[in-house]
Amino acid sequence: MSSESSATIRPPSSDVQIQQSRRLPDFLQSVNLKYVKLGYHYLVSHLLTLCLVPLMAVIIVEASQLNPDDIHQLWLHLKYNLVSVIICSAVLVFGCTVYVMSRPRSVFLVDYACYKPPSKLQVKYEQFMEHSKLTGDFDDSSLEFQRKILERSGLGEETYVPEAMHFIPPRPSMQAAREEAEQVMFGSLDILFANTRIKPKDIGILVVNCSLFNPTPSLSAMIVNKYKLRGNIRSFNLGGMGCSAGVIAIDLAKDMLQIHRNTCAVVVSTENITQNWYFGNKKSMLIPNCLFRVGGSAVLLSNKPKDRRRAKYKLVHVVRTHKGADDKAFKCVYQEQDDNGKTGVSLSKDLMAIAGGALKTNITTLGPLVLPISEQLLFFATLVAKKLLNAKVKPYIPDFKLAFDHFCIHAGGRAVIDELEKNLQLLPLHVEASRMTLHRFGNTSSSSIWYELAYTEAKGRMRKGNRVWQIAFGSGFKCNSAVWEALRNVKPSTSNPWEDCIHRYPVQTVL
């Protein structure tokens, strides 16, 4: 009896396995929803192509059924309506000519260079604090405040400060500030000229931006004098425009390249620290001392079609947002004197909120230009449901990862990078270049986005067709974006600022 039972009864687990094997897999569990979203994005983005395919198929089928008599009749019809043919041809040629002449000229980024200061200008945490203490200008509360800012800043032990700040006491002067500007600008330009083999006389447009140091003659005049640029060069010197001035300079150069044919433009972005170190005890004005470091970049742009072959990137979009009409935004980054008459740059406690508002406005403008149609439709549908139908739905945040492959977020500070990573729903890999630039070079102001791009290239991550989003914030208050498309698999140029240390990155930064 027991033997029969053991022979006829199967374990329950066997029945369950057979039953499961007869079912389709649970796709909601086995399929990653991100792939569903990618499929939807592909379908909607190629909707026009998918609709045109059947139409083209019908036209081809109908054309294949034409016999020689039908083709002969069509020829006779055109032959005896010569005037109509000529008029249509003339209109077509005129329209094509107008289109070609009015179409914006492509702007190519041939190459760029970032300045790497000598190792003797590096400053470690303890050295920074020791020098700050020995100056005698800071009280105990200010010293402790600076120590806390440094520890939480995300800066590493290899950032650079000007030579004048290494002396005890510091020796800020007009001459020292000029020397800092010359070292940074000429250092980056020497690398750029060597890598591109362009002659200084071939440069038709020069744009220089530096917010806090604007001597006479100007910084742009210093470059013209140093490299003996031609007499009819169109030079511009942008001052007081903050850390986003690098994108503004690119936009100005782009506009100039639309007007002047067959020419090259050089954009130099830097900041000067020597005369802008704060020696007071106002907390909001001490933060720049802890974050800003020496750095600069030089970028070569061209509208020459022949330069496309050797160019790294093509400029796709520049979107600029200015919130200066609002008083709080205007004063959130403000150069002023404290109660003791000492000059510095004050950072408002509302800075992050104002930056968030500027970012929202900027991406609202940028989104329709770069986001796939699928993301725009989802955003529009959510907006309609919420505004018109009063549906209780969360606002849809577009996925900018579908529009961009690389993100160069201005390395203004750890908090800025953290907030953008959170609000744009980015992955740690997307903000790695920004975090590592802040760690290795500090806040180099308007040039930081180029150190970040150089990091991406040094890591070998830039592929043909990749899109790069450079986004920067600056006083005023401004939020500016530049979008680039890689024209080839981009390798790091000679004298890339990361070439001797890229193997050590990424590193774990202070959280």
From TrEMBL:
Q: In which pathway does it act?
A: Lipid metabolism; fatty acid biosynthesis
- Domain FAE, chain residue ranges per copy: 99-388
Pfam families named in the record: ACP_syn_III_C (PF08541), FAE1_CUT1_RppA (PF08392)
**What stretch or stretches form a coiled coil here?**
none
Compartments where located: Membrane
Active-site feature positions: C243, H322, H406, H410, H439, N443
Q: According to the UniProt record, what class of enzyme is this? A: transferase
List cellular component terms (GO): membrane
**Catalysed transformations (reactions):** a very-long-chain acyl-CoA + malonyl-CoA + H(+) = a very-long-chain 3-oxoacyl-CoA + CO2 + CoA
Alphabetic keyword roster: Acyltransferase, Membrane, Transferase, Transmembrane, Transmembrane helix
Q: Which GO terms describe its biological process?
A: fatty acid biosynthetic process
Q: What is its EC number?
A: 2.3.1.-
Matches recorded under InterPro entries: 3-ktacl-CoA_syn, ACP_syn_III_C, FAE1_typ3_polyketide_synth, Thiolase-like
Where does the protein principally reside?
membrane
Q: Which residues cross the membrane?
A: 40-61, 82-101
| GO terms, molecular function | fatty acid elongase activity
SUPFAM superfamilies named in the record: Thiolase-like
Q: Which domain of life is it from?
A: Eukaryota
Q: Where does the record place the Beta-ketoacyl-[acyl-carrier-protein] synthase III C-terminal domain? A: 405-485
**Family listed:** Belongs to the thiolase-like superfamily. Chalcone/stilbene synthases family.
Q: What is this protein called?
A: 3-ketoacyl-CoA synthase
| Organism this protein belongs to | Erythroxylum novogranatense
